[in-house]
């Protein structure tokens, strides 16, 4: 029972990290229709940057915040490269984000080397029943709850947030009322960068990361995001939590090397289920 | 004074020419019709005038604020009617009072009961009214209406046309009406242009165009 509880909370924490990544994917896709495969890289950059800043003597909080801002700036740069040229299709931009991710490998190895790195998070653990759960796990869950609440308020209550939704809903009409859809797309990339960065700085104390950790992160983040059709952050959160708990249970009771397989199988199952839903809807409409 | 001036506009998509040296003007407070068949280039002209499409050559100038009621309404279907209207004031967003939708509800009281509804769930006529309202939120000097009657029942179209006439008379707002229904357009407007295959084929007062055998034969169904 204590193992189960430990794996559950750890899984929820990791799932929250995936949810932050997935919400970044959703934010970018909603506005630009681009699947940003560099999203995992933002987490890696922020996680490694936070470690370097802490080593340089910056206090906790400031180091993590600065690392998230760096990831936001990297997000903006990726957005400029992928979508800055007028007329770039979403498919071309997707390939560009994939390429940028590979270029980032070289830069990351040059700066941080190729060994996995971690930095200390919130120290200590909390006893729940017979289980000891790391305080960092609760921090990840708490921060994710706050971020999702703020995102919800931003998209539903603010004028700028509604303009984002307008771009996603009808880009032509958005242009017609004067919204600069390209600029909004760049803001979405910066926001995606910061969300990925938040995932990176929160997860690095739990899961040491290296330059190529983005593969695991983007696979899991994408699997979560497609549950909401890459447009609904709430469903992405649900998907991420299921995935995080499933991966944690697999790692705990079976073998950690099966974690990515779980994510891929879940993604495949969701895509098959979504395709079957679409087929049955088409058949219904044809009758 | 003209609120819209376009001269020698050329627009190409790849090798296809959508507009070929098109000129058009709309004076302040004027109601102008642009008629023509499908594929004539009407929407390309609208998009060029509003800066959505960049012309290959030619000159276009809008003096004052222009707003669009797009073809097919093009609302933000996931947002409420109130949000749709508020976003119409995006160009004036630095003025916090500009987002006040109250004035539009005074002009279009039929929208009050719909204000919390999702725009995507409304009927065609209701959506067209929201599209009107959204354009009015820009406090425009000229409103460009792309296909007023498309997909709407004749009674709904007549009602919306009456609203346009009232807005024009009471606010002095110029209107550029792009319409396939030439009879409706020439009844409503004082002047008009006929666009065919990317070129202006005829222009004149509504009376002159209505009296033209060519226009009557091609667009009014029968000689009047």
Automatic annotation (TrEMBL), chain A:
Species whose genome carries this gene: Streptomyces mesophilus
Alphabetical UniProt keywords: Amino-acid transport, Cell membrane, Membrane, Transmembrane, Transmembrane helix, Transport
UniProt record similarity statement: Belongs to the binding-protein-dependent transport system permease family. LivHM subfamily.
Keyword Magnesium appears in the UniProt entry: no
Keyword Lyase included in the entry's annotation: no
Gene Ontology CC: plasma membrane
GO biological process: amino acid transport
Protein name per UniProt: Branched-chain amino acid ABC transporter permease
Membrane topology: Multi-pass membrane protein
Transmembrane segments: 6-28, 40-59, 65-82, 94-113, 138-160, 181-203, 256-273
UniProt subcellular location: Cell membrane
GO molecular-function term, one example from the UniProt record: transmembrane transporter activity
TrEMBL record, chain B:
Keyword annotations of the record: Amino-acid transport, ATP-binding, Nucleotide-binding, Transport
Record bears the keyword Transport: yes
Protein name per its UniProtKB record: ABC transporter ATP-binding protein
CDD domains assigned to the protein according to its UniProt record, in alphabetical order: ABC_TM1139_LivF_branched
Domain of life where this protein originates: Bacteria
GO MF terms held by the record: ATP binding; ATP hydrolysis activity; branched-chain amino acid transmembrane transporter activity
GO terms (BP aspect): L-amino acid transport
PROSITE patterns found in the cross-reference section: ABC_TRANSPORTER_1, ABC_TRANSPORTER_2
Domain ABC transporter: 4-222
Family (UniProt): Belongs to the ABC transporter superfamily.
UniProt key word Transport: yes
């Amino acid at each position: 029972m204590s193992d189960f509880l430990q794996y559950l909370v750890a899984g929820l924490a990791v799932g929250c990290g995936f949810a932050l990544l997935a919400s970044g994917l959703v934010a970018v896709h909603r506005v630009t229709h681009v699947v940003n495969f560099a999203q995992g890289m933002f987490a890696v950059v922020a996680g490694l940057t936070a470690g370097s800043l802490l080593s340089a003597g910056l206090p906790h909080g400031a180091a993590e915040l600065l690392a998230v801002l760096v990831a936001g700036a990297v997000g903006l740069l990726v957005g400029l490269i992928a979508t800055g040229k007028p007329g770039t299709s979403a498919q071309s931009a997707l390939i560009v984000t994939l390429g940028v991710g590979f270029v980032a490998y070289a830069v990351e190895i040059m700066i941080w080397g190729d060994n996995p790195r971690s930095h200390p998070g919130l120290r200590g653990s909390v006893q729940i029943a017979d289980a000891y759960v790391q305080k960092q796990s609760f921090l990840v869950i708490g921060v994710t709850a706050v971020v999702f609440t703020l995102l919800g308020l931003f998209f539903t209550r603010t004028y700028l947030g509604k303009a984002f939704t307008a771009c996603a809903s009808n880009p032509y009409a958005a242009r017609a009322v004067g919204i600069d859809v390209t600029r909004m797309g760049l803001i979405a990339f910066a926001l995606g960068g910061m969300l990925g960065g938040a995932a990176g700085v929160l997860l690095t104390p739990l899961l040491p990361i290296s330059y190529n950790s983005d593969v695991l992160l983007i696979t899991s983040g994408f699997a979560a995001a497609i549950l909401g059709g890459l447009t609904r952050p709430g469903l992405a959160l649900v998907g991420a939590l299921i995935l995080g708990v499933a991966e944690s249970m697999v790692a705990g009771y079976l073998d950690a090397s099966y974690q990515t397989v779980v994510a891929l199988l879940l993604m495949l199952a969701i895509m098959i289920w979504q395709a079957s839903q679409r087929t049955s809807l088409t058949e219904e409409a044809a009758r | 004074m003209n609120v819209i001036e376009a001269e020698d506009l050329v627009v190409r998509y790849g090798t296809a020419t959508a507009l070929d040296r098109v000129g058009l003007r709309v004076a302040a407070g004027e109601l102008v019709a642009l008629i023509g068949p499908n594929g004539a280039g009407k929407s390309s002209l609208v998009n060029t005038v509003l800066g959505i499409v960049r012309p290959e050559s030619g000159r276009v100038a809008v003096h004052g604020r222009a707003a669009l009621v797009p073809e097919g309404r093009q609302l933000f279907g996931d947002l409420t009617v109130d949000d749709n209207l508020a976003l119409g004031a995006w160009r004036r967003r630095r003025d916090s009072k500009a987002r006040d939708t109250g004035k539009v509800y005074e002009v279009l009281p039929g929208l009050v009961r719909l204000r919390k509804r999702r725009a995507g769930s409304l009927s065609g006529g209701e959506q067209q009214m929201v599209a009107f309202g959204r354009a009015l939120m820009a406090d425009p000097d000229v409103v460009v209406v792309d296909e007023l009657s498309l997909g709407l029942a004749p009674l709904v179209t007549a009602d919306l046309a009456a609203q346009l006439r009232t807005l024009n008379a009471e606010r002095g707002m110029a209107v550029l009406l792009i319409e396939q229904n030439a009879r409706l357009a020439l009844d409503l407007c004082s002047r008009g242009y006929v666009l065919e295959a990317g070129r202006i084929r005829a222009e004149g007062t509504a009376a002159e165009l209505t009296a033209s055998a060519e226009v009557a034969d091609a667009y009014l169904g029968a000689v009047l």
